[in-house]
Amino acid sequence: MLLTFGAATSAAVGARAGEAADLLDGFAAADCSDEGPAWVLYLDIGGEAGSVACGRERRGGLRASADSRFLIASVSKLYLAVALMQLNEAGHLDIDDPAARWLPAGLVEKLGGLLDGVSIANLLTMTSGLPDYLDDAYSQSSIADARAGIAGRDILIKAVTGIAEEPRLFEPGASFDYSNTNYLLAQLVLEKAAGAPMYEVFEDRIFRPAGLTGTRLLGYGIGPAGFVQGFEDFGKGLEPVDAYLTGYGFGDGGLVTTAAEVSGFYKALFEYGVLLSDDSLERLLMDPSGEGYGMGIEIESLAGVGEVLGHSGGDTGFSADIRYVPEHGVTVVYLSALAEDDLSVTWELLEELP
After folding, report:
1. Where's the Beta-lactamase-related domain (predicted)?
2. Residue 323 DSSP SS3
3. DSSP type of residue 204
4. What is the rounded distance in angstroms from the CA atom of residue 179 to the CA atom of residue 54?
5. pLDDT score of 23
6. pLDDT at position 28, please?
7. Burial level of 239, CB count in 10 A (0-12/13-18/19+)?
8. Spatial distance between the Cα atoms of 89 and 94, rounded to a whole number of angstroms
9. Contact indicator for 277, 96 with CB cutoff of 8 Å
10. Distance (Å, rounded) from C-alpha 138 to C-alpha 160?
11. d(CA 313, CA 74)
12. What average pLDDT values come out for the chain (354 residues) when binned by 10 residues?
């Protein structure tokens, strides 16, 4: 178990940081197994950051630490939404453009009427009505394709065309359905408008300005050996998932990073103003469906705390959650190398804060 806290800059903040340290320490004492799958819990209160880490980065390897990197799955969606809003600010596209205008002609033809009336904003707010491409069959075929040397973009397009024969769930803008297909298409839009692959756009427009030196997209400079080993029970007990992560990260959830850098991204976006203008942030946080979802971000509230922004994520062998309270400058991040882990700890911490 690792517990670290910076020096308090004021008596009030120091008291809160000390109380949070006790809270984190108690959580570790109850749930920490130094030989199990890694997890990190990170808490920042007004700039006073602390963390607790547990487990091993890999079986028989180093103990997990605050610097351990995890796959953060759908927590990645906000990064793509921010990059597209940056292109909107720069005039490279209009966020309300028809998505088909920015997609490969062959893909648009294959999807037919599924894309009629679907805007880029519909993709980002999960209001397109497009069915989800992600299922067990896709997971197996994508692994085989990656091992065969098929390019990541081709695997992505194959995944999206897999929904071509499925009906649309509703007319664009009429309702909400959480579909990962939206963010694969959003990635293609981004790459067309920016004239560069997504991992380069992220590096230039998000990672470098926000100071995220340890954040990478899976398959582009980082593979399973470069972050903690995830575990999942496929019916015979927990087993490592490295073999399932030999492919590429896509726009729906492929980033690898640390808990501190997830927090740093949220602070750069919502506190420091280095990624988007106030007008763009306002649009990002609009909830057109009334389902508590903006553009790649969940918008909720907690009694006694106020508005809570964030996102959860789950992938083969990994779970993740971030909750950010803009009114108080509080960020809680939980990253786990265990599939379908309990993510309620982020909310439990928020409820305990003074």
Report:
1. 43-340
2. strand
3. I
4. 32
5. 67
6. 58
7. middle
8. 8
9. no
10. 10
11. 4
12. 32 46 63 82 88 92 94 98 98 98 96 96 98 80 76 86 94 98 98 97 98 96 95 92 89 96 97 96 98 98 94 96 94 96 91 76
pLDDT at 200: 98
236 DSSP 8-state letter = S
Structural domains of the chain, count: 1
In the chain, alpha helices (H): 11-31, 77-90, 105-111, 120-124, 136-147, 152-161, 181-194, 198-202, 208-210, 259-270, 278-284, 345-352
* Rg (the chain; Cα; Å): 20
Rounded (10°) CA dihedral 287, 79, 178, 163? 130
Residue 152: give the domain boundaries: 2-352
From the number of C-beta atoms within 10 Å of its C-beta (0-12, 13-18, 19+), residue 245 rates as buried
20 touches 331 (CB < 8 A)? no
Q: Which long-range contacts (CB under 8 A, 24 or more apart) does 316-319 make?
A: 316/139, 316/230, 316/232, 316/241, 316/244, 316/245, 317/71, 317/229, 317/230, 317/231, 317/232, 317/240, 317/241, 317/244, 317/245, 318/70, 318/71, 318/72, 318/73, 318/230, 318/241, 319/73, 319/343
Here the CATH number for the domain that contains residue 223 is 3.40.710.10
